[in-house]
Amino acid sequence: MARIETKLAERGLTLPQPLVLPPGVALPFPEVNLRGNRAYVSGAGPLNDDGSLAGPFGKVGVDVSVEDAAALAQKTGLAILAGLKRELGDLDRITGWCRVFGMVNCDPGFQQQPAVINGFSHLILDLFGPEVGRHARSAVGMAALPMRIAVEIEAELEIAPAVA
Amino acid sequence: MARIETKLAERGLTLPQPLVLPPGVALPFPEVNLRGNRAYVSGAGPLNDDGSLAGPFGKVGVDVSVEDAAALAQKTGLAILAGLKRELGDLDRITGWCRVFGMVNCDPGFQQQPAVINGFSHLILDLFGPEVGRHARSAVGMAALPMRIAVEIEAELEIAPAVA
Amino acid sequence: MARIETKLAERGLTLPQPLVLPPGVALPFPEVNLRGNRAYVSGAGPLNDDGSLAGPFGKVGVDVSVEDAAALAQKTGLAILAGLKRELGDLDRITGWCRVFGMVNCDPGFQQQPAVINGFSHLILDLFGPEVGRHARSAVGMAALPMRIAVEIEAELEIAPAVA
């Protein structure tokens, strides 16, 4: 029971609190949107345990090292899992990852986006295994991201119905 | 009947004519692609009532204010609804918004993408309400957009079959 | 039988070998992820016949002409078809293209992304025809792409079950 959460605990990983928005920012949409057997995950950034946005901030390759950015991608994964748990009740209802779109805030010369987003993919594969955790992925460079976060990830998953 | 169009009329909002392409631009794809119970909406920009691309054009934060860009995001929403109406016949066939990808043409230092795309989200929530209108969303900064439009939005929706 | 592959042969087009990664790059995800009746295609770039990344590399409009970039978009289409064939066994199992997200590596002033991604769309429409090949599309400008590729495309398709 609670297979994925047991794995998180075994690895010493914790799910952060819900995003605490900076003053003046309003986000009129849910972190996860369930429609039929699909969960659409809104673009998420890395969070500290208290739900504040996690730094370092700015451009990967200039303000943020590739290693730090990969750690931020892992934190983004934990933030997404926290949102999925709030929406689904149980992370074991996830039957398959479909699509992951990994966005890296970077300058025009940066070309290591895959190494950054691997911080997310390795987490998902470690927790869910190769069959459920398998995901199509893009990892690309954005001109800018909200509130100068270094990494943002959106995703689509396949979900089993809730057990009555 | 025609619940969504009644709401549009009550708010004094009109759906624009189909996109009139600038000379030399060809777009070999539909504005909306129906597959099963999903409508995939091609990346759309803001339109004037006559179907011409709506300005101001260029980079949000430099050439276009955040307030003007939010108004362009609303216009993009109306352009998308116009395309959905042409494809579906009736906007009331929309049973749920799934995913919205909001793209803002901006410089590397811009960080208010959510405030821009809120112009779209507020329109959709106002017209469709919190259950049908609920959408997962990303709002991110692009290096450049076609024909220097300031905002582009793509989306995926859940659709009911046409009534015979 | 093998209708799409017959068309490829008639046009003198060949599918490239699987992507050969540059040293030090690891991609822990499949090129195509099947879930139910959907195939999610990971962000792909243009390949040479031997699976090496195809140039020219860099920014379209500066390092790469629009014409060369459109040819790279066609090559990206062939790379995606090669991945779909490996996963599906038979390209004729594709019953409908859903969504295509076309990313162009470019400077902030570039605005001809549609002309570039048309190299992909024309290939798909030519091979699959207007009903199956029809796709929703965005064509947008990215700050940077992995390994300086000029074009990257991700997609979602509808797939028929394998015949036993």
List its salient traits.
homotrimer; 164 residues; alpha+beta; 60s Ribosomal Protein L30, Chain: A; five-stranded mixed beta sheet; 3 helices; 5 strands
What does this structure look like?
- Three copies of one chain form a homotrimer.
- Chain A has 164 residues and is of the alpha+beta class.
- Chain A has one domain: 60s Ribosomal Protein L30, Chain: A.
- The first copy, chain A, is built from three helices and five strands; from the N terminus they run αββαβαββ.
- Chain A has helices at residues 3-10, 66-88, 113-132; strands spanning 32-35, 38-44, 94-105, 136-142, 151-159.
- A five-stranded mixed β-sheet of chain A has the order 1-2-5-3-4, covered by helices on one side.
- In chain A, helix 3 (113-132) links the parallel strand 3 and strand 4.
- In chain A, helix 2 (66-88) packs parallel to helix 3.
- The longest helix of chain A is centred in the middle third of the chain and has 23 residues, at 66-88.
- Chain A is globular, with a radius of gyration of 15 Å.
- The model of chain A has no long low-confidence stretch (mean pLDDT 96).
- Chains in contact: A-B, A-C, B-C.
- Chains A and B meet through strand 1, strand 2 and strand 5 of A and strand 3, helix 3 and strand 4 of B.
